[in-house]
Specification:
Strand content: 15-25%
CATH class of the largest domain: Alpha Beta
Number of domains: 3
Order of helices and strands: EHHHEEHHEHEEHEHHEEHEHEEHHHHH
CATH topology of the largest domain: Alpha-Beta Plaits
CATH superfamily of the largest domain: CRISPR-Cas system, Cmr2 subunit, D1 domain, cysteine cluster
Structural class: alpha+beta
Distance between the termini: 71 Å
CATH architecture of the largest domain: 2-Layer Sandwich
Strand order of the largest sheet: 8-9-7-10-11-12
Largest sheet: 6 strands, mixed
Length: 475
């Protein structure tokens, strides 16, 4: 028998989609931000259908007068036996809010395409919900149980075929799915690009946003909290769970990007996406991760951490590709570098992708030596353009990352460390104006304190190549 607060309650978990796929369908950083804000506004409308939602909400922690920038899901307690009713009300409210938002863009659609516009808007929204009818009152166990119910529901959800009849028409160039409603012709007069309803709505909202010019090269930063599902499953009481949700909400509210540095796309607690100037990426990524640790832990602790992926590419590259690389980098930070880490991908115009990564902290909670080296190279009064490439030439014969059929490194790590240090100092000596920028101690600290290098020695060179590419002068 359930006592206390949950005696007459059941839990409702509501989720809105599609999220990452829709947000990533962007031509500009403004599109990204507009897509995120659109989904947040729709989710807020759904949450408002819950009686006294500010008190009923277990996640996210919200105030009665503040629902901006909430994530796309919520967990609430509702009166026993009424979960399905409130779920259906939330779905209806979400759809009504989308129609309200779409109305302004609809005015700009030609009469012969209004039916297609309405059809696409109607087909876009995906809503899922699950109800835990008999919560135990142990919030960790209940959170895990309703999560399983949601996964089961999403795996068997029904869906209709995409409602398009004119398959010969030009498709939305961002999604590749919907018929484009604002077909754009190229110089030859061929109709070759345009947007469907949802991406048109996003574009029109983006036009009202202030987005800085980020230069020729941009960076996408993707942050995600480590082991968050496990953490939430360990909280037994609602108050404990809500207290943690409040910390997540405070962190999300604290995430800011300088007006001239980039754009915060979204910050949903433990999940952050931003687009920034390439040369600012590492500093911003580190601040975001360290702020997460500061906001989510007791003073002096590092139990809750975050992993970050950074992808850097030309502003002329499809933004979706850079976002995808940022997500892949975030996954590497978690699964290759063991979480509480940074992973970087640099997309060169030639098609080559440079990879590098490191832990945020090393022994005794020191800042990663790799980040210290990056800062020293970046802040050097002289650009050492030739240094990284000289080093690459000297280290190439050693095949730093070469592995056998069993996946193990062929070279002896102890021997490699000596070679890498000597060749780095040799390269610095041969680079004009490099004297004093890096010292023996800097190189040795990186080699000896960054334990991931023993498994990924190729990252040693990756650091210098990435820094050189990111910070090279571009007139």
């Amino acid at each position: 028998m359930v006592e206390g607060e949950y005696k007459d309650k059941e839990l409702l978990l509501f989720q809105l989609g599609p999220v990452q796929e829709f947000i990533a369908q962007a031509e500009t950083p403004g599109d990204l931000k507009a897509g995120s804000e659109l989904l947040s506004t729709i989710t807020a409308a759904a949450l408002k259908e819950i009686p006294e939602y500010w008190d009923a909400a277990i996640f996210p922690a919200v105030k009665a007068d503040e629902l901006s920038r909430i994530p796309n899901r919520f967990l609430v307690g509702v009166p026993r036996g009424e979960g399905e009713k409130y779920a259906e009300m939330a779905v209806a409210a979400a759809r009504d809010e989308l129609k309200r938002i779409a109305a302004e863009t609809r005015k700009k659609i030609s009469d012969d395409r209004l039916a297609a516009f309405d059809s696409q808007v109607e087909a876009f929204l995906q809503t899922s919900w699950a109800i835990l009818k008999n919560p135990t009152g142990n919030m960790g166990a209940d959170y895990k149980a309703i999560g399983k119910l949601m996964a089961m529901r999403r795996n068997v959800r029904t869906f209709a075929a995409w409602p398009e009849e004119d398959y010969g028409l030009v498709k939305d160039f961002l999604s590749g799915k919907e018929v484009a409603l604002d077909v754009v012709s190229n110089r030859a007069g061929n109709k070759n690009s345009g947007r469907g309803a949802m991406n048109l709505i996003k574009k029109h909202r983006a036009e009202q946003l202030k987005v800085p010019d980020l230069g020729k090269y941009i960076a996408v930063i993707a942050l995600d909290g480590d082991h968050m599902g496990e953490k939430l499953s360990n909280f037994k009481g609602k108050d404990e769970h809500r207290a943690f949700s409040c910390k997540l909400a405070k962190y999300a509210a604290s995430v800011t990007i300088g007006d001239e540095e980039g754009v915060r796309v979204y910050a949903g607690g433990d999940d952050v996406l931003a687009v920034v100037k390439a040369e600012k990426a590492f500093g911003i990524a580190e601040k975001l991760a360290e702020s997460f640790v500061e906001k989510l832990n007791e003073k002096g602790e590092r139990k809750v951490t975050a992993s970050v992926g950074v992808a850097i590419g030309s502003a002329k590259e499809p933004l979706q590709d850079i976002i995808q690389e940022a997500r892949l980098a975030e996954s590497r930070a978690k699964h290759v570098y063991g979480r509480d880490a940074l992973a970087v991908s640099v997309l060169k115009r030639s098609g080559e992708i440079l990879h590098w990564g490191c832990k945020w902290k090393t022994e005794m909670l020191e800042r990663a030596p790799a980040l210290e080296i990056y800062d020293k190279l970046t802040n050097s009064k002289e650009r050492l353009a030739g240094f990284a490439y000289k080093l690459a030439g000297f280290l190439e014969p050693y095949e730093l990352g070469r592995r056998g059929k069993d996946g193990k490194l062929l070279a002896d790590w102890a021997a490699l460390k000596g070679v890498m240090c000597a060749e780095t100092l040799h390269s610095l000596m041969q680079t004009e104006k490099a004297k004093g920028v890096l010292k023996d101690a800097d190189i040795n600290a990186y080699l000896n304190k960054d334990k991931t290098l023993a498994e990924h020695p190729e990252d040693f060179l990756g650091l210098f190549l990435c820094e050189s590419f990111i910070n090279r002068p571009r007139d």
